[in-house]
Specification:
By secondary structure, the chain is α+β, with helices and mostly antiparallel strands. It is built from eight helices and 13 strands. Helix 5 runs parallel beside helix 7 and helix 6 crosses helix 8. The longest helix has 20 residues.
Length: about 260
């Protein structure tokens, strides 16, 4: 697979001497945590700073892995590097207008082994839904429902568009959903951690699997807030027989997800 350099940031990568696989692979990274090891391979991520010619800085995340693969329908035996799958999914989401980290660089070792690198631009101005929800609900006077409904609606709209693009995230935790509150009346949502994501042609399964994960792990949402999210996600003002049935399946799966 050929090396990818973002056209927009090619000069920035060259200025920082990170415009080839070897340079990126050999760049020293301070890992967020010890690299994940599985099936004889490893995978790690760290944050780096890219300096622009005017002295300004851009935050980025650099991922490296070796022999860290996942099988798929197209690659049932040897699989493909998980960062390659994430790169391909990020590029697809960009094409369909769904926010995810912008890819700056992707490369596999030209010598043919499974060493793989992926560099993405930091989601500046975004915070994890998990942290934002905590901030809005902790303290002596938590934010009321009207102050939070715009976030819930934006999240529901985003989830619907993601699933309409036939994408099942498969790790739809609040920590993987990021919110930008620069405009409080119109929050922007982005999604990260796309290694497990895949195309799923069955709408019911896309909704069931992702929403049951979110329903189980999101904090502070009352029953009325969860119902508001669900109706916004389905584009309904009241429950239909199918909506009731799907809701029951999501709740049932949430208890064991």
């Amino acid at each position: 697979m050929p090396t990818f350099l973002s056209t927009k940031y090619t000069q920035l990568l060259r200025d920082n001497e990170l415009d080839s696989f070897d340079k990126v692979w050999n760049y020293q990274v301070n890992w967020f945590e010890e690299p994940n090891e599985r099936r004889g391979g490893w995978s790690g991520v760290g944050r780096i700073i890219l300096k622009q010619s005017d002295g300004a800085e851009i935050g980025a995340f650099l991922k490296k892995q070796d022999n860290h693969c996942r099988t798929s329908f197209m690659h049932p035996i040897n699989g493909v590097p998980t960062f390659q799958r994430e790169f391909e999914m990020m590029r697809f989401l960009q094409k369909v207008g769904i926010r995810a980290p912008e890819v700056l660089f992707f490369g596999r070792n030209p010598e043919g082994d499974l060493k793989t690198t992926l560099m993405t631009k930091e989601l500046s101005g975004y915070v994890p839904l998990e942290l934002l929800t905590d901030e809005l609900n902790r303290g002596a006077k938590p934010a009321d429902f009207s102050a939070q409904r715009t976030i819930i609606k934006a999240l529901a709209d985003f989830s619907r568009r993601l699933h309409a693009a036939r994408i099942q995230h498969r790790s739809f935790y609040p920590k993987h959903l990021f919110v930008n509150m620069s405009n409080p009346s119109a929050p922007e949502i982005a999604v990260i951690d796309l290694e497990k994501s895949r195309v799923n042609y069955i709408p019911f399964l896309r909704s069931l699997i992702d929403l049951s994960t979110l329903n189980r792990h999101v904090k502070y949402w009352s029953k009325s807030r969860r119902m508001y999210f669900y109706l916004q996600y389905l584009g309904l003002t009241r429950m239909t027989p199918y909506a009731k049935w799907l809701c029951k399946q999501i709740i049932k799966r949430s208890s064991r997800d």
